[in-house]
Amino acid sequence: MTDLERKQRLPVPSEWTYAPAPESRDVVQLRERYGHFVGGEWLEPKETYPTISPASEEVLAEVGQATAAEVDLAVKAARGAYENGWSDLPGSERAKYLFRIARILQERSREFAVLESLNGGKPIKESRDVDLPLAAAHFFYYAGWADKLEYAFPNRRPKPVGVAGQIIPWNFPLLMLSWKIAPALACGNTVVLKPAETTPLTALLFCDVLRQAELPPGVVNIVTGDGSTGAALVKHEGVDKIAFTGSTEVGKAIQRELAGTGKKLTLELGGKAANVIFDDAALDQAVEGIVNGIYFNQGHVCCAGSRLLVQESISDAVIEKLKRRLTTLRVGDPLDKNTDVGAINSKMQLDKITELVEAGKEEGADIYQPPCRLPEKGYWFVPTVFTNVAQSYRIAQEEIFGPVLSVLTFRTPEEAVEKANNTPYGLSAGVWTEKGSRILWMAQQLRAGVVWANTYNRFDPTSPFGGYKESGYGREGGKHGLEPYLKFDSEAFGG
Ligand code: NAI
Ligand code: MG
Questions:
Q1: What is the best residue among 63, 131, 224, 247 to mutate for testing ligand 1's pocket, by most ligand atoms within 8 Å of CB?
Q2: Residue 389, phi-psi category: left (phi > 0), alpha (psi -120 to 50), beta (remainder)
Q3: Dihedral, CA of residue 205, residue 211, residue 213 and residue 218, to nearest 10
Q4: Is 127 close to ligand 1, i.e. is its CB under 6 Å away?
Q5: In a designed cystine with 37, which of 53, 84, 93, 222 is the match (CB 3.0 to 4.6 A)?
Q6: Is residue 98 within 6 Å of ligand 1 at its C-beta?
Q7: Phi, psi of 49 (to 5 degrees)
Q8: pLDDT in tens for each of the 495 residues of the chain?
Q9: CA gap 19, 270 in Å, rounded
Q10: Whole-model pTM above 0.90?
Q11: What's the Cα-to-Cα distance from 13 to each of 327, 356, 481, rounded to whole Å?
Q12: Whose CA is nearest to atom 29 of ligand 1?
């Protein structure tokens, strides 16, 4: 402290670290126990299980573990609502409900954001600034299509498919719900949705929004439970279409199950995206893109930039900048507004990340983790970078779904393409270069559903999203996202 400061008694901080800035939990009112939302009513569940906060392991509520009989009730409710009016409503009427849902989500976004972070472990600044605005945007966007389907698909007489069974994962619970429900309703279908077992609470709060919007009972039904509930939904004969987002393993099992049934299917599965940095890229921006690509949402992102491909001539400089940047990431309480990296979603996922990181060390890659104090309770993983990674290592091949980056190098654009495409997946990719022609060339060569240029993890409801190869098929978002929820006259003639 200088003499001048002492004289003026200015409060000079002794260190420049962040003070805690916790978001209040008061805005969320949890019930002790939740049932299934069937036909617009709460159905008392036969079995329940506890859902927790992964940051504290605190039990938040008991939720239902739906049996096949309960799934059957939900499908029947959806069928009833489909036949008793919903599928015949004019598109402009369906749109009104979707617009209402979108507006209510906006009005209640703080409540939803806090609950999302509480139940799933993601930082509040992400649920507040990404998940919630995008969820509302999806409903607004598809509300706009509801009365324009004939113009979207001219001369093809689009009609709803019927009852859609929708199974979603835990990494973006409310956002994945919106990706599924908004286009389904816009097209005149009814829905049975199953959230992931670790993150049911925002989907259950969403039932409250449906009531507020006065959506006719049975148009959206929500059953909670684990994989066995999902399997019962997939198998149910009353379901006309399945939409699934989750692991490639379960996606394949669903595809086998549905073979020959005539049910429509879309799969959005895993990824192992390459984020490719050329030597002419704006390096500081690229480093921000790398960080956003893999540490956003603890790396629990199907399109995460989990493989960094950096041109050899700038590799040392990029890795040095990246390591320095990692020391500034704040890991901890998801409800703290300063937190960059929150809790790992579950014990199971933490074990999977830990196992793959051990494999990376054993196979001979060099590991870097910034100094970092983790909370004692809950599930946490320090942001990690592996250098000296060979193509054959498990950490370069398998989806880790955690805050772990594998760095590989390349010399020529051809080599970058070859390495980027050398994976069973094909969901997304990133390209960083100042050269426009190279961006276009790379986008053509990369076998990935989405290619971001000089940015990463950028989402918009108007833009279709989906994969190649083992990342699945079918598109969500944009006009493309309507098609899986429609059947067309021409299909009757095999056209
Ligand atoms: P998962 O694929 O088992 O779970 C996703 C959803 O499918 C959940 O709602 C789950 O209850 C349901 N489910 C599980 N088994 C089912 C079955 N036989 N029939 C129907 N539904 C079923 O994924 P999990 O076990 O949570 O995570 C394992 C790995 O999968 C992760 O480490 C990650 O690599 C990957 N994953 C990818 C996601 C993506 O967005 N592409 C999302 C979640 C996980
Ligand atoms: Mg699983």
A1: 247
A2: beta
A3: 110
A4: no
A5: 222
A6: no
A7: -145, 160
A8: 566 656 666 677 777 778 899 999 999 999 999 999 999 999 999 999 999 999 999 999 999 999 999 999 999 999 999 999 999 999 999 999 999 999 999 999 999 999 999 999 999 999 999 999 999 999 999 999 999 999 999 999 999 999 999 999 999 999 999 999 999 999 999 999 999 999 999 999 999 999 999 999 999 999 999 999 999 999 999 999 999 999 999 999 999 999 999 999 999 999 999 999 999 999 999 999 999 999 999 999 999 999 999 999 999 999 999 999 999 999 999 999 999 999 999 999 999 999 999 999 999 999 999 999 999 999 999 999 999 999 999 999 999 999 999 999 999 999 999 999 999 999 999 999 999 999 999 999 999 999 999 999 999 999 999 999 999 999 999 999 999 999 998 655 444
A9: 37
A10: yes
A11: 21, 42, 52
A12: 247
Angstrom distances, CA of residue 203 to CA of 112, 141, 192, 270, 439: 10, 20, 12, 22, 39
Ligand 1: residue of 179, 234, 250 to mutate (most ligand atoms within 8 A of CB) is 250
Give burial (CB, 10 Å; 0-12/13-18/19+) of 414: exposed
Q: Is the CB of 196 under 6 A from ligand 1?
A: yes
Token duo for residue 132: 């919630």
At residue 86's C-alpha, the angle toward residues 80 and 88, to 5°, is 115
Q: What is the C-alpha to C-alpha distance for residues 104 and 11, in angstroms, rounded to an integer?
A: 43
Tokens of 373: 């104090």
Nearest residue CA, atom 14 of ligand 1?
A: 227
Tell me the two tokens of residue 312: 């050899």
